[in-house]
Amino acid sequence: MVETGNPNSVTDAGVGALCIRSAIIGAFLNVKINSVSLKDKIFKDKILNEAKKIVEQSNKLEMEILKLVEQKIS
Questions:
Q1: pLDDT value for 33
Q2: What is the model's pLDDT at position 7?
Q3: CA distance 24 to 56
Q4: Which helix (H) or strand (E) covers residue 3, if one does?
Q5: Confidence check: pLDDT of 4 > 90
Q6: How many angstroms separate the CA atoms of 34 and 49, rounded?
Q7: Cα separation of 55 and 44, whole Å?
Q8: 9-41 as b/e, with b when 16 or more CB fall inside 10 Å?
Q9: Which pLDDT score is estimated for 34?
Q10: Does residue 1 register a pLDDT over 90?
Q11: 43-74, pLDDT tens digit by residue?
């Protein structure tokens, strides 16, 4: 949307990226709190590590999108 969408909607793509990342962080917090009751430490660690990777990837993608948005509106 940032690269090929309506130029007047470019900031909507930035807001969308922020919203998606917020949802991912919220889901990660739920994974963390719910994993407390897991007895299988290996499984628990695997799930938490996967969730952390998703958060890290979303942070990276958000920054890329916001950078493109900034370039378009500057």
A1: 98
A2: 86
A3: 10
A4: none
A5: no
A6: 14
A7: 17
A8: ebeebbeebeeebeebeeebeebeeeeeeeeee
A9: 96
A10: no
A11: 999 999 999 999 999 999 999 999 999 999 99
Q: What is each CA distance from 32 to 36, 41, 64, in whole angstroms?
A: 7, 13, 26
Nearest alpha carbon to residue 21 among 58, 63, 61: 58
Answer whether 46's CB lies under 8 Å from 38's CB: no
- Rounded to an integer, what distance in angstroms lies between the CA atom of residue 34 and that of residue 23? 16
pTM of the model as a whole: 0.86
What gap in Å lies between CA 37 and CA 68, rounded to an integer? 41
DSSP tag of 4: T
